[in-house]
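Appendix B. Raw example, untouched.
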Amino acid sequence: MNCPGTKALLSRGVRRPGGSSRRAFTLVEVIMSVSVLALAITTSITVMQRAFLNFDSARNLEVASRILQCELEKQRLLPWAQVSNSAYTPAIDAVFQSNPKLAGRFTLQRSIALLPDRGGKLLQITLTATWRSYDGRTQSRSYTTYYGENGLYSAFTTRS
C-alpha cells in the first residue's frame, strides 16, 4: 500500500503498523545499566567511609602521641619522690583540653614499676592514652620510659 505523504510521516517518527521508526533501549538494557550504576555508587560510598575511618584513626593517633609526649616531658621534670609516688595521676595538658573537639575525648593513665634488679633506683613508667574512634571502638596508645633516681646513666651502669 503506497499512500501519498507516508514518507514524510515516517521521517517525523510516527509509528507505522507492524513496527517502529525509532530505536530505544530495551528494559533489560536499562535494568543492567541501573544495576551497574548502583554498584558503582555503593562501592564508592563504602570506600569513602573506610577512608574517613582511616583518616580519623590517623588523626587520633597523632593527637594521642602528642598528649603522651607532653606528659612524658612533664614527668622527666619531676623530682624522684613525686615520680615514684604511685598516687600521682597525670593530667592532660590544658592546650589539649581547650580544644572543644578534643576535650573529654582522651583519657590518660599511668602505671609505674620499680625495677628491683637495679637496686630500687630505676622506674619503668608507662603512660596510656585511650579514646573512642569514629566507629565507636575503644583504642589506646602507650609510651614507656625509664626514670632513674640519680639519672639513667647511674641506674644502668651501677648495681647496688
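End of appendix B.
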